[in-house]
Amino acid sequence: MRKAFTGLALAAALLFGGASAQNTFVYQTFGGIDTLDPAQAYDTASSVAIENIYETLYDYVGESVTEFQGSLATDWSANDAGDEYTFTLREGVTFHSGNEFTCADVEYTVERMLVHNPSDGGVWFLAESFLGTQANADSFLGDDATDADYADYFARIQNAAECIDDTTIQFTLDAPDPTFFVKMMSDVARIVDRDYAIDNGLWDGTEATWRDWIGVNLREYHLHDNASGTGAYELVDWDGEQLVAQRYDGYWGDTPAVQDVVVQTVDEQSTRLLAIQAGDASRVQVGDRATLEQLRGAEGVTIHEDPNWLSTTVGMVFFNSDINTDNNPDVGSGQLDGDGIPANFFDDANMRKCFAYNFDQQAFIDQVLQGQGQALTMGLPPSFLGYRDDLPVYDVDYAAAEEACQAAHGGAVWENGFEFTATYNAGNTTRQAALNIIKDNIEFMNPGFRMNVRELAWPDYLAYTDEGKGTMFALGWAPSYADSDYFLHPFYHSEGFYAGRTGIDNPELDALIDAARETVDADEREDLYEQVGQIAYDEMPMLPYPSPNEFIVTRDNVQGVYLNPMYGGQFLWKDIVLD
Amino acid sequence: MFAYIVRRLLFIPFVFIGVTVMIVLLMQLLSPAQRAAAFVSSDAQLKNLDAIIEQYGLDEPFHVQYASWVGEALQGNLGFSTASSEPVATTIRKRLPASAELALVSLIPVIGLGIWLGTLAALNRDRAIDQITRVGAIVGWSLPNFVLGIWLLVLFYGGLGDVLRDFAGGAFRLEPGRVSTEVAIQIANGTFPIRTNFLLIDSLLAGRPDVFWDALRHLILPVITLAATSSALIMRVMRSSLLETLSQDYVRTARAKGLRDQIVHFKHARRNALIPVITLAGFTLIFLLNGVVITETVFNYPGLGRWFASAAVALDYPAIMGFTVLTAFIVVVGNLLVDVLYAIVDPRIRYG
User: Fold this and answer.
1) pTM of the model as a whole
2) Which end of chain A is more exposed for a tag (fewer CB within 10 A), N or C?
3) What is the DSSP string of A223-258?
């Protein structure tokens, strides 16, 4: 009987047992890849694939966001004015299609992104550098534009990138931009294969057709689910659900150790946790630290952690100084009568400080981040230029809070009380916790203070904050390129991204941020940003909540793991080894 | 009968118009900024909200949006699904066979188990076995799919995973997904050719028993999950139908003729008792074909249900429209087939 059973098992193994994938790195994540086209992609999941298939001219060194090394370029220089950048290109590089990498590919990549500049893509910050506008041609020129206007616009696009010779490319900017070099390390600047793109029906690079391609949805074209880059891995297939890539034998750099990579979208977290324990996944994405604890000590699983791995996403509790009270249920009566708040409720710095002094930083770190996080003094990751680690953070301080509250709006707030509702997007428990900590403390301080917290579905939250109806709300900001301007302008400038949602309008802050955009001198920029930090502390226009320490979960056999916050996948596949 | 079928088929376009108009009207209740959510996956994209609304025509009036969708749909273009990152038609072409494969394989134990247990319960009315079966059915019907699914995964993929992995070269492993990573790589690089997207069929066509078994063993846990819940209803209908049939005069006559119980039960009574079960089985298949959201999500099975769930959350308008049209088609045609089957099984039923 036993022999028969063994024989049956053996037969089953021979007939049905598949070959095991020995040298395959399987990454299970949630949130599917949006697109593989660098000119369209603007999400972390897409970055995971794009950063391994395509390459930029320069790239980061390991975990550093301030040290760089040549990738498709071997040298670079900028003119004194800071509006002209020249790169020497690497020779002997081939695309996955077999085409040779030349200067024409770099020129095409830049012109292509500026022509398309889809509204939901990430071209806008490079368009601003090259053309002085974040918008694409149609949006910038408007409905009344003439053919001459378009011709002039295209001439500026063509002027943006010029091949000096086969291995030298020169970029001409609209104005000096000290952030340009790091912007060119973002996904949107990854070099595409010109001939491959044109052969497969994308923009042919001519003025005759460019207007047909302005703002198009590139997800409907060939580079959406096909790719020919110069990266260490070439795309085998992506079916919208699962991506398979393999080591590119013609790669110009060191041969990667891992042969195949599979990226799987597994939305159910418990399934991912079982997969890493079973050894079916080499790496899994884990949503939060509380869940991470379930994996601690699991056989065969390694949790990679480092005190220096502080998240570069800055989470913020915003105060809206100019609330749109029109049909807005969250402002109650709309008056400072104890049953509502007026539109300018948060326009008073004392009011904002009253709330800020009610935020218990340590409780947030302990309860939400499981003790693994750091309080921020300003809306900037600590590793970025100009961060003020010498400033105090607004922490829970009932005496200071009471003093600020009593001073706010000439004492009317303390006397009359208030009621309003703060909002966050549904499912984001971190933002929910940040608001609830403030709510608990501020309601304890004065029985007339009533702060409600409610969630909104993401689409509603989008529309709601866009209309300026958010009173106090929580959102986050993650960098597309490693420069302080990417945080400070959106947060603190009166023309920044959040200005329409927060009503921020501080001429001093505007002047400092603008001045930092006009100089390439790093020391000068650091000084300007430090001054921004000081005003951000003094005026307290918005409250950053603590950033978490990041972690990575892999199987024991995955070696070479590091964390660079500028990579969607934290590390490049070419740098890891499977023991 | 033929005229009846033609009339029902002619009814389909009107159903399509009805459901699509309803969806577009419902979408109008949302503001353009809310509809733009499908294109905004990160906070940074909020920056260009107005441009996104303009680019995708999200502020166009109802009739313009509907006419545009119909115009494209008539040319075979159902739009682009941001939830699946590919055209809606492509997603349906790939995922419908996956859901159909799961549905058809599930239907065998769902019906088999339901009929067997229902018969067992009816023939042992009010005895212990009847009570146990009925309680079991209630438990099965009440148990949420995701609870049972996760239990099964924890038990067979987690707890017993090592045992199954070490036994027979892992040939009997029970894992989530549709195929193993090794087969997925073969599909991606073309080593294993996809012809129909029904992997059980494709593997047979390719002469690959290893892939056939690989796909089949990935179906085992989701099928058990679906069988445990869906067969409960069939079991209850089967039981009550058989009890009713057993009290009919012709059954009493058969018994009076001296026929053995087995012949009376299985040849005379059960055949007739199956009629309502067939109707229910038809509806069960329609339900399963539309994709079983929870089961597909827990087992990471790339079917229609999981796609639609993510599309609905993201307000992926083209996907919602495409899925609705597909569902309407499946329901109308499925109902028609059930009616026809009903008439074939029971000659007393005629459609005029």
Assistant:
1) 0.85
2) N
3) GGT----SSSEEEEEE-SSEEEEEE-TT-SSSPPS-
